Amino acid sequence: MVNRGRSFSGPGPDPWDGVLLVDKPSGFTSHDVVAKVRGHFRIKKVGHGGTLDPMATGLLILLTGRGTRLSGQVMGADKTYEGVMRLGATTDTQDADGQVLEVRPAENVTTENIKAEMLKRIGDQMQTPPMVSAIKKNGVPLYKLARKGEVVEREPRFIHVYQFTLDERNGPDVRFTLRCTKGTYVRTLCADIGEALGCGAHLSALRRTASGSFSIAEALPLRDLLLLSPDDVLQRIIPMHRLAPGQG
After folding, report:
1. Residue 78 among the catalytic residues
2. CA torsion 195→159→85→27, rounded to 10°?
3. How many angstroms separate the Cα of 75 from the Cα of each of 50, 52, 70?
4. How many angstroms separate the CA atoms of 227 and 220, rounded?
5. Consecutive H or E run containing 178
6. Of 54, 114, 151, 211, which residue is least crowded by CB atoms under 10 Å?
7. How far is Cα 150 from Cα 131, in angstroms, rounded to an integer?
8. Which residues neighbour 16 within 8 Å (Cβ) at sequence distance 6 or greater?
């Protein structure tokens, strides 16, 4: 463990100020990862640059020390995902973590039909966030209202999809690659496509592979990160001056 309760007093910038790239495992919230890293290495200040749902895996950008000042810059970057959309079933969360609401046949849905619906969603559009989300209504996260069975009006948000390609189809499972702007709900895209196809759909797997200039190839799985010594972790922190000249 490293004691980060006191301020860095060495010459030059604090080496703990910057960005740390983590490969988030499924079943963890983004906050879980932040708390584990902060507590394990006793880093006084840790945040993240863009939430991943608990089911999702992949690139989670942690901001350490004064690196938290870069939150807006990092969160605003475009994102790339690889995922699986499952046809034939809808859920109350639009993903595999939710309860199944309806099952419909999908055998007659052709791959060409799916590609056509994905193509329609490339470009500028307005997207209504799902009820199960962290967006707040009158200070209360929507997911808390959803747990009570409440449904409230949500303001549509502008998003842009740069790429939405069908990589492989295996029965009801459609593997895809998506590149989009921040704030895009991938599970909502899948649910909307399912409705358009008449069979329903939900997101059954999701992995973030890139955010801005950062790639999953640079990230370390959380379990491996927690095995490192503080000195080894320091070697993985990208310093602020490399990301925002004049701030490091």
Report:
1. no
2. -120
3. 5, 12, 8
4. 11
5. strand 173-180
6. 151
7. 9
8. 4, 8, 43, 64, 65, 234, 237
Residues contacting 243, CB < 8 A, separation 6+: 18, 19, 67, 70, 73
DSSP state of 112: H
Q: Is 111 exposed, middle or buried (0-12, 13-18, 19+ CB in 10 A)?
A: exposed
- Helix, strand and coil in the chain, % to nearest 5: 30, 35, 40
- Spatial distance between the Cα atoms of 180 and 238, rounded to a whole number of angstroms: 24
Q: How far is CA 239 from CA 5, 72, 215, in A?
A: 20, 17, 16
Per residue of the chain (248 residues), give pLDDT as tens: 444 433 444 545 788 999 999 999 999 999 999 999 999 999 989 999 888 999 999 999 999 999 888 888 888 899 999 999 999 999 999 999 999 999 999 999 999 999 999 999 999 999 998 877 777 777 777 777 777 777 778 889 999 999 999 999 999 999 999 999 999 999 999 999 999 999 999 999 999 999 999 999 999 999 999 999 999 999 999 998 777 555 54
- Is the Cβ–Cβ distance between 34 and 63 less than 8 Å? no
d(CA 128, CA 110): 27
**Catalytic residue chosen out of the listed positions 23, 53, 97, 192:** 53
C-alpha span between 43 and 50 (Å, rounded): 19
Q: In terms of pTM, does the model score above 0.85?
A: yes
Query: Which residues touch 137 (CB under 8 Å, ≥6 apart)?
Result: 145, 152, 154
Q: Which residues contact 60 (CB under 8 A, 6 or more apart)?
A: 21, 22, 23, 24, 30, 33, 48, 50, 52, 208, 219
